[in-house]
Every structure is written in C-alpha cells, then in structure tokens.
Amino acid sequence: MKTAVSVPDDLFHSAEEAARRLRVSRSQLYATAIAEFLDRRQTHAITKRLNAVYSRRHAKVDPALQRAQLKSLDKDSW
Fold first, then answer.
1. At residue 78, does pLDDT exceed 80?
2. Who's near 78: CB < 8 A, 6+ residues apart?
3. What percent of the chain has pLDDT over 70?
4. I want to staple 19 with a disulfide (CB 3.0 to 4.6 A). Which of 4, 29, 32, 50 is the partner?
5. 63 and 71 Cβ atoms separated by less than 8 Å
C-alpha cells in the first residue's frame, strides 16, 4: 500500500540516515517503525488490562511455596 505522510525535516533526515546505515529502504524503515510502535502499544494495553485485573485482589503466596522458594535461594551460587 502506498501512502504519503508529512514529517518534520529533522526527523526525515534522521530516518534517511538510519535507513542508509541499516541498509534498508525508506519504506522498510517506516514499516518496521510503525510495526514496532503498534506492537508496543498493544503490549502496553495488555499489561494495563492485566494490572487492572490483578490489582483487584491482594496477592498472597502460599506459605509452603514461600518456604520452598526461600530454601532454594540458599543453594544458588550467585
């Protein structure tokens, strides 16, 4: 799909330089940038929804599980 967009001159020049440095076309650079932007937005939205769901309840760790986790730390060689 072809499209036309307006960007500030300094951003355009930075994008041109990045495309040359990365050895990709301008179209590929813009497509990658948009895809990454949308992916981050989607990930952020999912995280926000999960936080909303899990913030409704107080997190409680099973005492036996907590003891097992603490015991395993002693054996770890950091």
1. no
2. none
3. 94
4. 29
5. no
C-alpha distances in Å from residue 34, one per residue of 10, 40, 67: 18, 10, 46
Residues near 18 by beta carbon (within 8 Å), at least 6 away in sequence: 29
Paired tokens of 16? 């041109």
Q: Pull the structure tokens for residue 75.
A: 């054996």
Give one DSSP letter per residue of 38-51, joined into a string: HHHHHHHHHHHHHH
| Exposure letters 65-75 (e unless 16+ CB within 10 A, then b) | eeeeeeeeeee
Question: Coil, strand or helix: which one is 35?
Answer: helix
Determine the length of the chain: 78
